[in-house]
Amino acid sequence: MRVVSGIQPTGDLHLGNLLGAILRWVRMQDEAECLFFLADLHALTVDVDPAILRGNVREMAAALIASGIDPAKSTLFAQSAVPAHPELAWILQGTARMGWLNRMTQWKDKAGKNREGASVGLFTYPVLQAADVLVYKATHVPVGEDQKQHIELARDIAVKFNNDFDVELFVAPEPYIGGGTAARVMSLRDGASKMSKSDPSEASRIHLTDSDDVIAQKLRKAKTDPEPLPDDPELLAGRPEARNLVGIMAAVTGESPAAVLQRFSGQGFGAFKPALADATIALLAPLRERLIELRNDPAMLDGILAAGAEKAVELAAPTLHEAYRAVGLRS
Ligand code: AQP
């Protein structure tokens, strides 16, 4: 079992990233060979400030280590330090179909009505994402629900490439979603949209860097409804904000949503929100303290990323070489 996954260094790590993906990465470190990367090439698909991006790569590496990614167990690196990713992505652009990419809901959501003005990279980045995992022959890709469609695309690309060139080179990876964490954490301001780094409202998400007071305040102001909590998760249907907060409580405490509702059935959000704030702070405060310590040692962080990149370059080389050979180049 080989696990590969990445996160864009486009802003501070938030609770959605943590509950949807990172805490599962942490658990998988003891079960599988794991490679985790900062998807800094993906970050170029939207407008970037070079100075901020450079700092963000290190900051996100620190946030991952603070969250429990152990460089002694996992290979941690920046995507841009391993040229095999974009090289393979270019080869796979010949395999991916326009129609496949046109169906990607993230493309539709992120480009919005301004498709003509969107970067080409925003359209093709799922192909780079396919290369990110196929180049290591990843068997499992732990991601949030929002990325499931992209992993399915990577599977389609792997199968078509193998068929087109009559090789058994690529392994079709499995998306790995759920498993006790919240597969889809929604915005605190709108239960219909996902918690996201790019949401202009800071109040919509909880950052790993938020102080205890800010966490409590954001949860206190989170959008809810006036109804008391029911005793059965099924009864949260049609109450997206309530369902989201119950889901967050379950993920941060490790309970099931049903167990959370057993504790709070009949109570309103006036009672639930402070308890949710306490549970969230209990999870995040120690991670935040570690992050603050790690920030003081940039040389150590750079050393970890350099060692990770060296290992990743080695692991990726044979697959890239085989891909070139399959298409008739570099024999
Ligand atoms: N709201 C979420 N709930 C559950 N999982 C989530 N993930 C992101 N948001 C949620 C998962 O976190 C991992 C890293 O995400 P990413 O930064 O690489 O990509 P993203 O999905 O684009 O994240 P954001 O925060 O929404 O950033 P922007 O605003 O830049 O698009 C992935 O496994 C993702 O599924």
Notes on the protein architecture:
The chain is mainly alpha-helical and 331 residues long. It folds into 2 domains: 2-183 and 297-326, HUPs (Rossmann fold, 3-Layer(aba) Sandwich), CATH 3.40.50.620; 210-292, Tyrosyl-Transfer RNA Synthetase, CATH 1.10.240.10. Helix content is 52%, strand content 7%. The strands form 2 sheets. It has a 3-stranded parallel sheet. It has a two-stranded parallel sheet with strand order 4-5. Strand 1 (2-7), helix 1 and strand 2 (33-38) form a beta-alpha-beta unit. The protein is globular. It starts with a strand and ends in a 5-residue tail after the last helix. 43% of the residues are buried. The mean pLDDT is 95. Adenosine-5'-tetraphosphate is lined by residues 7-8, 10, 16-17, 20-21, 39, 143-144, 146-147, 184-185, 194-198. Adenosine-5'-tetraphosphate binds at residues 7-8, 10, 16-17, 20-21, 39, 143-144, 146-147, 184-185, 194-198.
Compile the SSE list and pairings.
Layout (H helix, E strand, L loop, with lengths): L1 E6 L7 H14 L4 E6 L11 H18 L7 E4 L5 H10 L4 H5 L2 H7 L8 H15 L5 E3 L5 H17 L9 E3 L35 H9 L19 H14 L3 H8 L4 H27 L2 H29 L5
Parallel strand pairs: 1-2, 2-3, 4-5
Helix pairs in contact: 2-11, 3-6, 3-12, 6-7, 8-11, 9-10, 9-11
This protein binds adenosine-5'-tetraphosphate.
The site of adenosine-5'-tetraphosphate (AQP) has 19 residues, from helix 1.
First-last Cα distance: 30 Å
CATH secondary-structure class of the largest domain:
Alpha Beta
Instruction: Give the helix tally.
Output: 12
Strand order of the largest sheet: 1-2-3
